[in-house]
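User: Could you check the structure of this?
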Amino acid sequence: MSTRTLIRGGLVVTAADELHADVLVEDGRVAALAAHGTPAAESWTADRVIDATGRYVIPGGVDAHTHMELPFGGTFASDTFETGTRAAAWGGTTTIVDFAVQTVGRPLREGLDAWYAKADGNCAVDYAFHMILSDVDASSLKEMDHLVEEGVTSFKLFMAYPGVFYSDDGQILRAMQRSSANGGLIMMHAENGIAIDVLVEQALARGETDPRHHGEVRKVLLEAEATHRAIQLARVAGAPLYVVHVSAEEAVAELAAARDKGLPVFGETCPQYLFLSTDNLDEPDFEGAKYVCSTPLRPREHQAALWRGLRTNDLQVVSTDHCPFCFTGQKDLGRGDFSKIPNGLPGVENRMDLLHQAVVDGHLSRRRWIEIACATPARMFGLYPKKGTIAPGSDADIVVYDPHATQTLSAATHHMNVDYSAYEGRTVTGRVETVLSRGETVIDNRTYTGRAGHGVYTPRSTCQYLD
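Assistant: Sure, the predicted structure tokens are below.
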């Protein structure tokens, strides 16, 4: 049976346009747009009409960096694919790209299949996967080619976490050479983990055990150095590079210098680096543990460089790196030793609203908000124009957004499966009202109507900035 939904009276905002238009949705796709009041728009009939007067009509968000159910530090991220994608929907995000993890010594395929199994039938919104390479060798390099053909077209490597995910420069170079040949995109966690481990050991020996020391040992210069090194290795390999969770002014400068040379180098930052700082890590009574993530929060003065990078396109994407751990029972594993605090923050539900607040505050334009949160992540990871825009033929992943409503972010009202909010008590302007995923309503006027299993796996093409 054909179903038609008409979204009438709103301001449609995409990365390219702002237009007062009605949107016709048919069988899960955008069928047409027409200016309000025109004969075309007036002639449309639908099974359901959504009144978007006074609202924005925006593409569903694409969060290209989440970690549902990630094993880390002897525990697991507290959001499942079910709870995490439901929270994403509440926050106006209709596609996540999560990370399947290779176990050292085991095939990539085994790790990818494990993540397919975790997500299958459990997701409220659509999902795709990147692959974490924990063990670069002849066999995993060959498997990369097969994964690209299957629609898993990006591979994450770590210059941090020796003994867990760490790859040395030789392994990184080999993986980059392979991606240069097969069209894949290397994503890099750029921190000098070998040097950081020395500083961790020295800090603990001095009795510096509080959460704030997590930020102090993971020095800005070690992020900048690793970013520089990753760029040079990518140049040697002739490969594109995407640096995840950029947090420091000096790292932005390395990306800007590479991009000024015309290199295919891209950068992502996250809301926590734009809105939080080392002040949070320094909160008393171990509260700072709530804010332990890597790369770490930086002194507040780094925020201006990140906002500037987003405006100048030296940074292209804002993702969350959503990796929640409860304060009680998980974060407190690190009481008395900051190095044992699980690294990660909750945020999948907050990203679209925080970035709208940045529009209100004058950091970003409306179209740039949609560009960094929807369109560019979709293009970067081979999902555009199926995802990331509102155009005929696109999936009807659409958010009706109230730009005037205010809300106070709090663990008491969020939908992420975690016992604290990184933004507790912060009031923001703008709120998701109704969310469609492939034409099906998952949030209806602030009521959840979605279901586990609606979300489907979405294979990806290669990075669309390299065509």
